[in-house]
């Protein structure tokens, strides 16, 4: 899309990317923070102005393979985040530890 025009509306992106309306801007922010897109978001006008973007051509028969790899990566990332969150969440001390602390 960015090859055809540099200013793209959120509704056009939503249709092209097949995302719910609420996920368009977070998706773009992630793409920008990952360096895949350099541009400017206008939340009020709901547009993305693209300055540059990384392009990767994938043959039609490779799309499902690429999607599976991305889904697998996201699944692993989600599990890692959950594990780290659990590790960082303060735990209630066990009864033995409580007694020693109180004792």
UniProtKB/TrEMBL annotation:
Renumbered residue ranges of the record's region Disordered: 84-103
Pfam families linked to this entry: PCI (PF01399)
PCI domain mapped to chain residues: 5-50
Official protein name in the record: PCI domain-containing protein
Species classification: Eukaryota, Fungi, Dikarya, Ascomycota, Saccharomycotina
